[in-house]
């Protein structure tokens, strides 16, 4: 048998083992052996229990994570998710996974870029005033060394509300739990030194009623955040 055939056989066997371990874990979860919130045995324990390699266990767990049955918490372990939320949209949000934040930033870049353009064309005077007030609040917090997380979310939410299309603000509220990392969760992620400047360009474009400029300013802001989280993900992988 040639090397290609051998590699193909090993691959088929490996895939079969992954499916078997995933099915076994799924049965344990469905049967209540592992309940929502329970931590799975360690990777080493599962390896010994099922007499397979760590790679097989890792792929089986990854498969169940993609189904929303399991979630990994960095430095803690793998846990069973809430069965009532299984398969629900955005139910797998986890601030412990930078990849989850990146997924949301990609979604936000698409939606909030258009929201900024619509806000520039449709915002009311009171909505413009709210956006400006929140921009100033973020600046004040920065000067005092305070957290800008809540004010930052409120700023983006105010822009979404200024579209006069409530679906934009509903989406932001829906994904709020996975939008902004706390100081303890942000690891080596440094504060964006250009935050106030980037927000200022967005505010000015919306105030001027320029949809194109508002879209460009929002896109630049969110793409910058996306690049920073991708860099952090690479750092964590390297560690």
Please give the largest β-sheet: 2 strands, antiparallel
For the residues shown, what is the average pLDDT? 83
Number of DSSP-assigned strands:
2
Distance between the termini: 40 Å
Q: What is the 3D form?
A: elongated
Strand content: under 5%
Helix fraction?
55-70%
Order of helices and strands: HHHEEHHHHHH
List keywords for this structure.
single chain; 239 residues; mainly alpha; two-stranded antiparallel ribbon; 9 helices; elongated; disordered N terminus
Concise structural overview:
The protein contains nine helices and two strands.
Provide a descriptive summary of the structure in words.
The protein has 239 residues and is mostly helical. It contains nine helices and two strands, in the order αααββαααααα. It has helices at residues 3-30, 43-50, 54-66, 98-122, 125-144, 149-161, 166-175, 195-208, 211-238, and strands at 70-73, 77-80. Strands 1-2 form a two-stranded antiparallel ribbon. A hairpin with a 3-residue loop joins strand 1 (70-73) and strand 2. The longest helix is centred in the first third of the chain and has 28 residues, at 3-30. The protein is elongated. It starts with a helix and ends with a helix. Mean pLDDT is 83; it is low at 1-14 and 182-188.
SSE inventory with pairings:
Layout: H1 3-30, H2 43-50, H3 54-66, E1 70-73, E2 77-80, H4 98-122, H5 125-144, H6 149-161, H7 166-175, H8 195-208, H9 211-238
Antiparallel strand pairs: 1-2
């Amino acid at each position: 048998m040639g090397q290609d055939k051998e590699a193909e056989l090993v691959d088929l066997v490996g895939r079969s083992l992954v499916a078997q371990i995933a099915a076994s874990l799924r049965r344990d979860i469905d049967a209540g052996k592992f309940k929502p919130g329970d931590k799975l045995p360690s990777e080493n324990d599962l390896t010994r229990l099922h007499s397979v390699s760590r790679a097989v266990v890792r792929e089986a767990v990854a498969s169940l994570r993609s189904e929303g049955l399991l979630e990994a918490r960095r430095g803690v372990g793998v846990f069973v998710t809430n069965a009532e939320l299984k398969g629900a949209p955005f139910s797998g949000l986890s601030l412990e996974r930078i990849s989850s934040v990146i997924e949301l930033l990609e979604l936000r870049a698409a939606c909030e870029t258009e929201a900024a353009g619509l806000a520039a064309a449709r915002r009311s005077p009171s909505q413009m005033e709210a956006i400006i007030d929140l921009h100033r609040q973020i600046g004040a917090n920065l000067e005092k060394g305070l957290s800008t997380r809540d004010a930052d979310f409120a700023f983006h939410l105010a822009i979404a509300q200024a579209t006069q299309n409530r679906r934009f603000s509903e989406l932001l509220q829906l994904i709020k739990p996975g939008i902004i990392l706390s100081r303890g969760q942000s690891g080596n992620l440094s504060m964006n030194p250009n935050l106030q400047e980037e927000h200022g360009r967005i505010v000015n474009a919306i105030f001027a009623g320029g949809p194109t400029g508002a879209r460009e300013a929002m896109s630049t802001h969110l793409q910058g955040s996306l690049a920073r989280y991708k860099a952090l993900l690479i750092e964590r992988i390297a560690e």
